[in-house]
Structure formats: structure tokens, C-alpha cells
Amino acid sequence: MNRRLPILAFAMLMLLPGLAAAQVYKCKGKSGETVYSEFPCDASAQPMKLRDDPVAAAAATVADGTGTPAPQENNVSAPTTGEVDRSAERECVANATASIYGPSNDRVAAHQQQMAMLNEQLAGADAQHSQALRARMATLRQAITREHANANTLVNAARRRCIEQYRTTP
Prior knowledge:
Blueprint: H1 4-19, E1 25-28, E2 34-37, H2 54-63, H3 81-123, H4 127-166
Antiparallel strand pairs: 1-2
């Protein structure tokens, strides 16, 4: 059974590249550190340029027998018209998503900060003041829920606009 474990682990690792086909954003964290995320961190977040198929590029170097990369820019074949449209569509969606979720996340963070302060006040409050604090916290929770719903609605509408703008009919 112990001999099968490395083989099983290797097989599972071979399946991972197919699962890792998400957009990646590079952002600065609050302390200045570099943060990588599959979601835009703010309105200025730009998606990273990743090679579409690094396995195919590596296979092309082995196929010619020389071990040298094929003379293609960035080891990626030239995109077809449909791929160019998809790239522009993805960029449109990414920009719209960042411009909507960035400010929305800032507003939600401000609400959450208010909630944390109210929660601290709640620890030392009397019964009457405690009830008022809980009511204010419930109002903030509703505002956060509305903010998320509104942002999701706006992003979905922006996605539809980007798709309509960049997808051509055959």
C-alpha cells in the first residue's frame, strides 16, 4: 500500500494543471506585500498575462528534437480572430468587474469596521443601550447584503454588455 501512495500522489498532481485555468490578479496588500488573487482587488487591478498552454509550448520544443523553443513570440501561437475577441471580452469583463467590486468591497469593509466597533461597545453596554447597538448592527448587516446584491447585479449586467460587444455572430 505504501508503494501506491507516491503513484497516486503523482497522478493527482498531473490533474491539477487542468483545474488551474482561472484569471489571476496581482495586487498590493495593505502592508505593501504582493498578493495574488483570482478576483480583482480594486478598480485598478489588472489581470496578469499568463501563457495559454505552457504544456503545448514545452511539447513543441521536444517535437522538433532540438530542445529549443519554436520561433513564436512568448511560445504561444498567434491567436485567431475568435481568440482575439475572447481576449478583448475577458479584458472588458475584468475591467468592469474591478470597477464595480473594488468600490463595493470598500463600502462593505467600512460597514464591517463599524460593526466591529459596535460589537466592542456591546460588550460593556447596559440592556437599553445594548438593544440600540444590536438594531444598528442589524441595519449594517442589511446594508452589506444589499451592497453585495447590487454589486452582483451590476457585474452580471456588465458581463452581458461585454459579451454582446465582443462576440460576433457567425
